[in-house]
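Duplicate of #3305? Posting structure anyway:
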């Protein structure tokens, strides 16, 4: 009995590479078509005309074969992509019954699973992203803040497990009210931090203040800290803009680096 091992991520990468290769070959064939399918005779005699026609016919035959090969290539890439997606779905379906009983105990005891990515916060709610699994898992992205008289704050990104990256902070909500009464944009959520190996999440951008108000733009969220050993620190979120009378929001601080990584870049302040 033979066994087949497939890595869906590698299959998806191979499909992308093959699609890029097909595009390059098609461009080369198109560039060469004019010079290979219609040749000028070297002279006015019948022999030169016959030679030019012969080579032109070969060029036309090559272009026809290239068209057929391109169609086959496209079918192959499609089949490869479909197969990779099927493998990924099968892996997820097979893994879920095995992990669910284990994760259930950890969720009951600690509020987060052992293995698995955290759920993203819903857009427009400002909900925090869920934390990833203690062992392996990326933190969920924070939901964006709700737009309103004063923009709502974006949710914080979820923390990662021992192996995984923190979730990005949600963007602050935009202030939509008119008037001159100091309505402000919402603050961006902080990026989630990695634990041991992984990148910190980027801080969310601050929401912009209303065009006609005097309020300030929301502050950008802080970037998440990098993993203790390896991983990039999260960049701070950009401050929200304040179009007329007030200052733009402050940019968020960059996350702290680990033992072998630099701290993250702070976010730019908002325009005013």
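Output from current build:
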């Amino acid at each position: 009995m033979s066994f087949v091992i497939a890595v869906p991520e590698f299959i998806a990468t191979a499909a992308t590479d093959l699609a890029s290769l097909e595009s390059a070959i098609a461009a080369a064939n198109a560039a060469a078509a004019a010079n290979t399918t219609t040749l000028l005779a070297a002279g006015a005699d019948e022999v030169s005309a016959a030679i030019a026609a012969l080579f032109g016919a070969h060029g036309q035959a090559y272009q026809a074969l290239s068209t057929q090969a391109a169609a086959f290539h496209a079918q192959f890439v499609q089949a490869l992509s479909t197969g990779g997606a099927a493998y990924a779905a099968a892996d997820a379906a097979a893994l879920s019954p095995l992990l669910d009983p284990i994760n259930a105990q950890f969720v009951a005891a600690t509020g987060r699973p052992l293995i698995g990515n955290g759920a993203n916060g819903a857009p427009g709610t400002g909900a925090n992203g869920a934390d990833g699994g203690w062992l392996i898992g990326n933190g969920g992205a924070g939901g964006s803040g709700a737009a309103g008289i004063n923009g709502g704050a974006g949710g914080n990104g979820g923390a990662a497990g021992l192996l995984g990256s923190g979730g990005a902070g949600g963007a602050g909500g935009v202030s939509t009210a008119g008037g001159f009464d100091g309505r402000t944009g919402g603050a961006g959520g902080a990026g989630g931090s990695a634990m041991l190996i992984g990148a910190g999440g980027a801080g969310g951008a601050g929401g912009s203040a209303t065009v006609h108000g005097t309020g300030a733009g929301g502050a950008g969220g802080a970037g998440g800290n990098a993993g203790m050993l390896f991983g990039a620190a999260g960049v701070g979120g950009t401050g929200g803009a304040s179009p007329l009378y007030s200052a733009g929001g402050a940019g968020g601080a960059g996350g702290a680096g680990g033992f072998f990584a630099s701290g993250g870049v702070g976010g730019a302040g908002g325009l005013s």
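Confirmed duplicate; merging threads. Residues 46-110 form the longest helix (65 residues). Helices lie at 8-37, 46-110.
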